């Protein structure tokens, strides 16, 4: 017999049973569900990551929808169990869904929700923060200070890299990559080189306009270049930030050969997906090149780091906090809840999953739509005409 899972129940008499595998920030998401006749059960188990068996116990034999997390393994076992329990919806509280077997969800008729549109600026800010922290050796200096080692100013003490006038490289100039680029260009007057399969016309126009502004005020204008290959970015940029999707073509995108192409004092930042970097190769490169620095928010085998990485003084490492602003995390919880609620209610799918402001306005009733269903076409779900 399965071990009972501890839960917190809201609106016990609700018609629709919705399960959340974790407590999530804010209370609006709870109110939206309970005001719409949902019985909400929030898992309160003291585990960072729930097992498949744990989630099976939560689903039980009667469940209309589940809100889950990127760390959970959602495949055939869970989707078939949710279908048997009468469920039709699962939503990640995340923009990514690498933890989801979409084919298994399609087979069982389960709509898969995610939460894009609310993470862009927050994630870009974290990537920019890692860039500055790594370039200026802020974490090293902080640890030095706290250890009581500072006994006066020295000419060579924690000399880092000046960003102004240098080149920032962006691999993947989508929403987050472009937002990051704008921050680095406008904030530090860096030049841009980017690689993307699609031209980022809006970003190019921004850099051109900002360059003209600087020139009109007697300053050196910034420039942009769309690289013909990723390798061109790696060779030319002083700071490189990775923003690709994770698939078979981007697994270990950064490998020993590509690390060797980069400048000896380059800064590499990853706030996208851990497996785009060969972490073992990265550790070896950091050892061999002490002036090469990285800022990492994600890791190849989360929650673990590859051996040796934690000891690298030229690595800034943080625990997957790119989306960790109060507004963003509360917004993610709201969008995840509305994905599940919308499917239960039979609402259509929102036409633009990146234009989520109407769902996040706390003073207004959300539109009668699912904010973002990644397999809507496969399931033949209608689109909102709003």
UniProtKB/TrEMBL annotation:
Residues 130-322 form the D-isomer specific 2-hydroxyacid dehydrogenase NAD-binding domain. InterPro entries: D-isomer_2-hydroxyacid_DH, D-isomer_2_OHA_DH_cat_dom, D-isomer_DH_CS1, D-isomer_DH_NAD-bd, NAD(P)-bd_dom_sf. Keywords: Glycolate pathway, NAD, Oxidoreductase, Peroxisome. It catalyses: (R)-glycerate + NAD(+) = 3-hydroxypyruvate + NADH + H(+). Its EC number is 1.1.1.29. It is found in: Peroxisome. GO terms for molecular function: glyoxylate reductase (NADPH) activity; hydroxypyruvate reductase (NADH) activity; NAD binding. It is an enzyme of class 1 (oxidoreductase). Residues 28-347 form the D-isomer specific 2-hydroxyacid dehydrogenase catalytic domain. Its main location: other. GO terms for biological process: oxidative photosynthetic carbon pathway. Pathway: Photosynthesis; photorespiration; 3-phospho-D-glycerate from glycine: step 3/4. GO terms for cellular component: cytosol; peroxisome. Belongs to the D-isomer specific 2-hydroxyacid dehydrogenase family. This is glycerate dehydrogenase. It comes from Hordeum vulgare subsp. vulgare (Domesticated barley).
């Amino acid at each position: 017999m399965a071990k009972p899972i501890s839960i917190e129940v809201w609106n016990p008499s609700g018609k629709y049973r919705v399960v959340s595998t974790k407590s999530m920030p804010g209370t609006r998401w709870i109110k939206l569900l309970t005001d719409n006749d949902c019985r909400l059960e929030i898992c309160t188990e003291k585990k960072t990551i729930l097992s498949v068996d744990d989630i099976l116990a939560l689903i039980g034999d009667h469940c209309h929808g589940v809100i889950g997390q990127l760390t959970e393994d959602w495949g055939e076992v869970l989707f078939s169990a949710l279908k048997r329990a009468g469920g039709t919806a699962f939503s990640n509280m995340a923009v990514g869904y690498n933890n989801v077997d979409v084919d298994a969800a399609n087979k069982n008729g389960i709509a898969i929700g995610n939460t894009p549109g609310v993470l862009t600026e927050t994630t870009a800010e974290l990537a920019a923060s890692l860039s500055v922290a790594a370039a200026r050796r802020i974490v090293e200096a902080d640890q030095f200070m706290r250890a009581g080692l500072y006994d006066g100013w020295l000419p060579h003490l924690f000399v880092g890299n000046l960003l102004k006038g240098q080149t920032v490289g962006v691999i993947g100039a989508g929403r987050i990559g472009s937002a990051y680029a704008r921050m680095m260009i406008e904030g530090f007057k860096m030049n841009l080189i980017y690689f993307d399969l699609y031209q980022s016309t809006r970003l190019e126009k921004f850099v051109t306009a900002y360059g003209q502004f600087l020139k009109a005020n007697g300053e050196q204008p910034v420039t942009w270049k769309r690289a013909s290959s990723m390798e061109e970015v790696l060779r030319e940029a002083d700071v490189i930030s990775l923003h690709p999707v994770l698939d078979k073509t981007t697994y270990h995108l950064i490998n020993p050969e590509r690390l060797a192409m980069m400048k000896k004092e380059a800064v590499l930042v990853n706030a996208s997906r851990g497996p785009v970097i060969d972490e073992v190769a990265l550790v070896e490169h950091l050892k061999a090149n002490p002036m090469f620095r990285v800022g990492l928010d994600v890791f190849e085998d989360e929650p673990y780091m590859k051996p040796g990485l934690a000891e690298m003084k030229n690595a800034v490492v943080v625990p997957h906090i790119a989306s960790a602003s109060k507004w963003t995390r509360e917004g993610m919880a709201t969008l995840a809840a509305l994905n599940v609620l919308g499917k239960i209610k039979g609402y259509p799918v929102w036409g633009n999953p990146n234009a989520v402001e109407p769902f996040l306005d706390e003073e207004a009733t959300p539109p009668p739509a699912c904010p973002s269903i990644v397999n809507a076409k496969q399931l033949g779900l209608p689109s909102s005409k709003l």
